[in-house]
Amino acid sequence: MAPHGGFLTGEVSRQPAEGPAKKNPPALPHTTMTQANLFAALRAAFPADLDSVAIETADTPVPLLYTWRDLDRGTAMLANLLASLALPAGSRIAVHTEKSVEALMLYLAVLRAGHVHLPLNSAYQAAELEYFIRNAEPAVVVCAGRNFGWVSKVAFLAGTEHVYTLNEDRTGTLLDRAAYQPDTHQPAQRGADDLAAILYTSGTTGRSKGAMLSHGNLLSNARVLKDYWAWRSAEEGGDVLIHALPIFHVHGLFVASHGALLNGSRMIWFNRFDARAVAARLPEATVFMGVPTLYVRLLGEAALTRAACARMRLFVSGSAPLLIETFRDWQARTGHTILERYGMSETTMLTSNPYRPESARRGGTVGLPLPGVGLRVHDAKGRPLAAGEIGGIEVKGPNVFKGYWRMPEKTADEFTTDLWFKTGDLGFIDGDGYVTIVGRSKDLIISGGYNVYPAEVEGYLNELPGVAESAVVGVPHPDFGEAVVAVAVPRAGAKLDGVALVAALKHKIANFKVPKQVFVQPDLPRNAMGKVQKNLLREQHQALFKP
Ligand code: MLC
Ligand code: AMP
Fold first, then answer.
1. Residues 525/536, Cβ–Cβ less than 8 Å
2. Interval between CA 452 and ligand 1 midpoint (Å)
3. Do 433 and 453 reside in the same domain of the chain?
C-alpha cells in the first residue's frame, strides 16, 4: 500500500475544509531573480487560500474537487518521481493518455521538474506513435493502461527506459509510484529559453515536426492573454472557466489551462466535450473556450439561452475558422459576441479580437496582433503588401518557437531571411489593422479543430491492397467545419470498395483523420503539368454534407 492509501487519496476528492480562509499563504518555494520556470509563475498565482477549489470535475462518476493545495502537492509528488529517475537535462516526457486532472498535473509536474512535456493526441495509433517516439526519444512515456502492451513495446524499442500508465479513473503505475514521493518540491531552475514542451505539427509538407516551445514562449503569451482578455482578480469577483478541450494541443493545454491557472481561477473540468452537459454548467461560469464545432453543437442545445449565459463574460473561439453564421447565431441566442483569436502550435496565440468594447469584435476576422507580436503580409517573393492585399502571414515575437526538434533545415525553411516565421496561412490586414485569414498555402484540412495532412492520409490509403493512388481533400461539413474525403484509384484489375477502405484506415490512423467517405474513380483529374487538381475534387464533393 502506498502511504496515505494512494496518490492524494482523501485529499483530492474531499470537500474544501470548512472554516475561515487562511490569512497567511504558506511560503512559496524559494525562487531567484533568474527563475523563469513557467510552473513557478503559475504556482505564484495560486490564491492565498490554498484550500479553496481549483478544479471541479463535471463528468467523472462522482464530482471531484481539487484544491489548490492538491495541485501543489500532486505536482510536487509527480515532479519528485521524475527527479528520482535522475534523467538527463532536457529529457522528454511523452504523454499519450485520455484527458484527466491528473494528466494536467503531470504536465505541470514536468515543467516543475524542468523536463520537456510532449503531449500526444490519445487518438493516435501504433504507426503514428512510433514515429513520434522514435523522433523525440523520450526518457519517459506515460500511456493509458489499456494501451500499455503496444505502447511499451514501441517505447522500449526506441530506447525509452520508463513507461508508466495513467488512467482516467486515477489508477495506474504513475500515481502508484508518485504516492511514495514527498509532497514538496522546489521548482527546477530554468531560463526563459529552456524548452518546456514539444508539440508535433506538420507545418507545410512532409512528416510531422516537433515545434520546440520554451518557458519564455509560453509564459509571455499567457501573461499577454491574461491582460488582453481582462481575467478578473478575486476582488473583481474572479473568473470560472469551463475547460472542455483536449489537453494535448495548444488551445486546451496552454490557452485555457494557463489562463485559469495564471489567474488563480477555478475550472469546471470536462474530460470530454458534451454539449448538453456543458450547456447545463454555463450558469456557473464566466469564461468558455472552444473550437468552432463546440459552438455549433452548443447552438443545438435548447438550454443555451440568454439566462444561462447571464454570468458569462467571455466566449473565445479559435483553432479553425468560425463561420459568420455561427458568430451571428450566437449573438442572437445568448446576447454575447464570440471573441475569435488566431494561433498555432509554433507560436501559441498571435492575434485576438478586442476584449473591449464587445462591439469591436468583428466576425470573420481574427482581430488584431497581440501586444508584442509582429504580423505582416508578404507576397510569394517576400515583398510587403498593402492593406487589403492577400498574401502569406508572417510573424515575430517572444511567443515564436525555438525551431523544429532536430530539423535545423526545416526550421530555416520556415523563417524569412530577416527571421520572421512563415505561418503558411494566407490573409490580409485591413485599414484598421484587423487580420482576416482567407486560406492556407499549406495543404491542410482542419476538421473539428484537429489538423489533418492530406499527404499523410494519402500515404496510408496508397498502402492498402489494390490502391494505385489517391487524393484527399477537405469539404464543408456542418459539424466539423471541414470533413476529410478521399478519392481512390484502383490498380489495374483490382476492385475497390470505398466502405472497406474507410474501415481499413480506422485500424491504422487516428479516427479524426479517417475520410468520412472514400470515392472510387478510374483516375484523378490532373492539369497539363500532371499535378492532381484537388480544387476540382473539392468542387465535385462540395455539397456532400449539405444539411
Ligand atoms: C471526432 N470525430 C471527428 C473529430 N472528432 N471527425 C472529424 N474531425 C474531428 N475533429 C469522429 C470520430 O472519428 C468518430 O467517428 C466520431 O467523431 C465520434 O468520436 P468522438 O471522439 O466521440 O467525438 P467527439 O467527442 O464528438 O469529438 C468531437 C470534438 C473533438 C469536436 C469534441 O474533435 C475535439 O475535442 N476537437 C477539439 C480539437 C482541439 O482542441 N483543437 C485545438 C488544436 S490547437 P467514428 O466514425 O469513428 O465513429 C490549434 C492552435 C490554436 O489549432 O489556434 O488553437
Ligand atoms: P496547429 O498547427 O494545430 O497549431 O494549427 C494552426 C493552424 O490553425 C493555423 O496555422 C491556422 O491555419 C489555423 N487556425 C488557428 N486559429 C484560427 C482561426 N481563428 N481562424 C482560422 N484558422 C485558424
1. yes
2. 11
3. no
Task: Give residue 368 CA to ligand 1 midpoint distance, Å.
Answer: 28
pLDDT at 205: 59
Q: What is the pLDDT of residues 264-273, one digit of tens each?
A: 999 999 999 9
The boundaries of the domain holding residue 476 are 444-541
Question: CB-based contacts of 194: which residues, under 8 Å, 6+ apart?
Answer: 36, 90, 114, 214, 215
Residue 494 lies in a domain: yes
Structure confidence at residue 30 (pLDDT): 45
Max Cα–Cα distance, the chain, nearest Å: 80
Kindly report the protein residue whose alpha carbon is nearest to atom 12 of ligand 2: 425
Is residue 11 in some structural domain? no
Please report the atom of ligand 2 found closest to the CA of residue 250.
4
The angle formed by the CA atoms of residues 511, 205 and 365, to the nearest 5 degrees, is 80
Closest CA to 351 of 376, 337, 375, 368: 368
Centre of ligand 2 to C-alpha 341, Å, is 9
What is the block-wise mean pLDDT of the chain (547 residues), using blocks of 10 residues? 46 42 41 78 97 97 97 98 96 98 98 98 95 97 98 97 97 98 97 97 76 98 98 94 98 98 98 98 98 98 98 98 98 98 98 98 98 97 96 98 96 96 97 96 92 94 97 97 98 97 97 98 95 96 95
Quote the CA–CA distance of 103 and 107 in Å, as a whole number.
Answer: 6
Q: Are residues 393 and 482 in the same domain?
A: no
Closest ligand to residue 393's CA:
2
| Confidence at residue 23, expressed as pLDDT on a 0 to 100 scale | 38
Cα 501 to Cα 517: distance, rounded to the nearest angstrom: 9
Pick the residue whose CA is nearest to atom 7 on ligand 2.
344
C-alpha cell recorded at residue 545:
454534407
Ligand nearest to the CA of 515: 1
